[in-house]
């Protein structure tokens, strides 16, 4: 289910510099400062706060003044007849293409198709790009015209194309606008200035000392503008998440109520990744990229560089692709990502402690708090939390290993990677060698009959099980119920052309008492989901149907369009449903 989330190893510094890490860094920074310096910083902050409060007061005064002006204007407008905003005699213009948000590479010719008509003869049309006149076309007595003009895309970022027309009576149309985006053609990698290259080399030397791993071969670094790096990420997403896989993943997530099956995951993830990207390491090319929009290596750039350089070292020593089980076990894949990101986060944290000045740390934290997080905040809960998991829980896991045996213990984890999110959430279980149980399901095709299509079979895992329950029950209760997870396996089927979904999900628990505890919490989940108690024993029915079964240390959840099909499927599990 989560393979789409980790198509790239992305540095989410907004997360990495969240409350816990930021608090540690601030404490360290303050303790490293002389007392008089600390007092000076605090005084400066107090002065700044006072200034901001004054500015806020000024803004509030301006708002009250504006509100009074608006009330006066509204009263005037209410007493004045409103003219027809578009006179029937004025020309009307429409842009046929491109569509808003269309993307073009630098140097590509953008063809703008338009049409205009007027009751009177048309006189001219003007075409602007970003407010500057590109061309004016005069007409010869026509009342309806369809045409086009071209513009060579220049300058990455957003651009506004505008058209208006006038007739021979001197009446002009409204401006009609469309905003498009120009992206890099992929060949415009920024050259690295000598002083920045020297700073990067120094960061590499410091990171090698901190981590205790030396490069086995030269590491390639690419520096891009933000727009160019976004394009690199989108191209990677296109390769790793083709449309059919994105559709299947949405259905799979819908089976667990995480989001509607019709969700456009490619669009959602494209927006999320390009908002959050600070840099990334590409295992296919054994190189990493980062953003540099100002030809300077600031504190945030240094932290990003450290993080990505560690990924390069990890890959050279441990072959990151070989560690990831991929689509065959999404829970284990998320766990491995937690190890990878947690290691890089810990070294980045140590780098900040030892090699950034207190002032740089404050600058870094301030800059990280200004990063746009709208897409992250609005993303479905499961996507948001699974993106955060490797950085937050992965860091805690690696810290637990490091506290016992330094980076030698972390290196041992790369040689024996965690196999479940349970091991990430509970490092002591990883250290004790507690492995997940392997479960299976019987074939379902014959029971389902013709018309049903298999979507996927996989492992949910303790962490995503916790997220699943949190949709309807208190997070603390969900975490406690998921804590006894010992292994699971599920299969999802759908009937193309319909919203019908079948989910069969079998889970093993460490002890029978924990299976019983999960049964109690799942009853709360289902009662809340359906808005009513079970219709019979532990079966619920509404727009679809779910039955829950338990026997000893195992549980079974079956979801189908109706109770009849649920019970037919349950007959395949006499040891659980009998």
Overview of the molecule:
With 578 residues, this protein is an alpha+beta fold. The chain has three domains: 3-48 and 236-281 and 303-431, no CATH class; 92-173, Immunoglobulin-like (Sandwich), CATH 2.60.40.10; 445-577, Protein Transport Mog1p, Chain A (3-Layer(aba) Sandwich). 49% of the residues lie in helices and 21% in strands. The chain is built from 21 helices and 18 strands. The protein has helices spanning 13-16, 19-32, 35-78, 194-211, 226-240, 243-255, 265-276, 299-318, 320-323, 330-355, 358-369, 374-378, 381-415, 421-425, 427-431, 445-448, 461-470, 475-482, 512-530, 563-570, 574-577; strands spanning 9-10, 92-97, 103-105, 109-117, 122-129, 132-138, 144-152, 157-167, 176-183, 220-224, 279-282, 287-291, 453-458, 485-494, 501-509, 539-541, 545-551, 554-560. The strands form four sheets. The protein has a six-stranded antiparallel sheet with strand order 13-14-15-18-17-16, sandwiched between helices. Strands 3-9-8-5-6 form a five-stranded mixed sheet. Helix 8 (299-318) packs across helix 10. The chain is flat and about 85 Å long. The model is unreliable at 2-11, 18-22 and 78-86 (pLDDT under 50).
